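Before surveying the methods themselves, let us examine one representative protein, pairing a chain with its fold in token form.
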Amino acid sequence: MADWNTSDIPDQRGRVVVVTGANSGLGYVTARELARKGARVVLACRSEARGAEAGDRLAAELPGAEVEFGRLDLGDLGSVRDFAAWFPYERLDLLVNNAGVMALPYGTTADGFETQFGVNHLGHFALTGLLLPTLLGTPGARVVTVSSGMHALANIDIDDLNGERRYRRWIAYARSKTANLLFTHELTRRLAAHGSEVLAAAAHPGYAATNLQTAGVRMEGRRAAERIVQLGNRVLAQPAEAGALPVLYAATAPEVRPDSFTGPSFAGWRGAPAPSWRAPWTLNDAMGERLWSASEQLTGVTYEALKV
């Protein structure tokens, strides 16, 4: 694993892949490298213009690549349902739950959920559940959810999932990333209980330079803070190409185990893919069940095939 890179990605020909947030950053690199290995990749993006531009850019980099755009707004459960209804393939070999938002000022999704929890967790929970029948019908399918080392800042507050009592943007982000890991843990448990071979795993990019870090301060017009973040990205962060490696490893390496968490090897910050430390609360069965039940209630998406 220490020297693992994109040349180690197995042949992806014949495989169908969905990558959320694939128009830029980690999502774009993930989609590009999977397409380079022959996968048919659906770029699931909120903006049709940016998704189409990403598709054109990818086609220019990889002539003959099989890529297409599918509109998906994870902050709108109606859009999530529309995407799942549109999905045109009878197989789905890999779902990469990559899209996300970070440290935004308080806001709500189209359905009234706190934005970070709603987009980072609930949107992907609903998407995975709606695509589950196709995943279950595809031999060797995987679900890879992108979390963050920042999850260690906070466990979820099951009694205040939407941050209505007190909102702190970085704590809300950490809780949404903890939710990603609890989701992976509980999904793994339920898949195993039903004898399914679908593999659920998680990954994180360490500190990778993407647009994610600047979105919150840009929304508030804090130009000085935005410049500081941009400087940090240039000086301290690894490029998106390196940040995507743990995601690509979790998505394709034959030795990946269920409920594993892959990140950069050097202090979870940068470097080749390696097993990553995770907070003990992300392995709590009781909390995973409670979050799962709440997520089904909030989204209206029930995983009928995995009922316990």
